[in-house]
Amino acid sequence: MASEPTRVMVAVNESTIKGYPHASISSKKAFEWTLKKIVRSNTSDFKLLLLHTQVQDQDGFDDVDSIYASPDDFRHMRERNKAKGLHLLEFFVNKCHEIGVGCEAWIRKGDPTEVICHEVRRVRPDFLVVGSRGLGPFQKVFVGTVSEFCVKHAECPVIVIKRSAEESPQDPADD
Amino acid sequence: MASEPTRVMVAVNESTIKGYPHASISSKKAFEWTLKKIVRSNTSDFKLLLLHTQVQDQDGFDDVDSIYASPDDFRHMRERNKAKGLHLLEFFVNKCHEIGVGCEAWIRKGDPTEVICHEVRRVRPDFLVVGSRGLGPFQKVFVGTVSEFCVKHAECPVIVIKRSAEESPQDPADD
């Protein structure tokens, strides 16, 4: 088949409980669902575009016990965070290579909702897959959901993959 | 590959401008997108579940010039409407057979939002594809969108395929 592969963007992030380099339950689920239900054995007809957004405030929060004495300390911190993000992407890229599906992976800093919609406009995937923690209405008020924002604002078709009940931690916000 | 095919439910409806047996621009687009971007050449790994909901009021509206003199007249009308729905499904089923992808198609009467969500619970597809007319906020108030309801309430992943600008009629509600 000579036509261009279907380009599927998958938004991936780290676990809020375990941190880097662990992928969140919901983004791992969205990734695995895409391989199992869409790509299947047809690996040559798909290309996965793996986007990881590093949330800056969240990363900064890990560093409350750090002491910064020089400009270099901040540079080291930034490099360390970048390395953490790379380990996360490595997990997904390795899986793609194992099964033989083409992929590209990259990191952006910022608010995931804005970054994802911006990257959709920039790279023009055929569709976007995002995981969802499946929060109830009460939890959504405080946590917000990236997936809902993408469904409304991303300029491409979006498919939201919810975690199944047995995959969810006791507090659904832990992912 | 011995595993079960991916079961994709596609909601199809007739054109509001042309009526039966013409498929709406948006449901034809959703169907063709699914074949082109998801199924591709891998026809044996997918099964399409084509659901057409007949809106009862809308169909009744076509019959304002009819005269009913006996119970049989109503039966004939119902049979005619059913036949119209069958012609619509025939269009989609023929396309599936042409390219060699398995399918099942059926008709339900009622409100599309409720029927689609009910059928999702009943047949448990891997995901649901719905077309969207891409209405603006003003038009949505009066017309409502089936796709938005499905995204919120259907108990499976949902992908909404919007019509492209060049496919849209002058009045986006005509589809």
UniProtKB/TrEMBL annotation, chains A, B:
Domain UspA stretches: 23-162
Domain of life: Eukaryota
InterPro entries according to UniProt: At3g01520-like_plant, Rossmann-like_a/b/a_fold, Universal_stress_UspA, UspA
PANTHER family registered for this protein in UniProt: ADENINE NUCLEOTIDE ALPHA HYDROLASES-LIKE SUPERFAMILY PROTEIN
The protein's name: UspA domain-containing protein
Highest classification ranks of the organism: Eukaryota, Viridiplantae, Streptophyta, Embryophyta, Tracheophyta
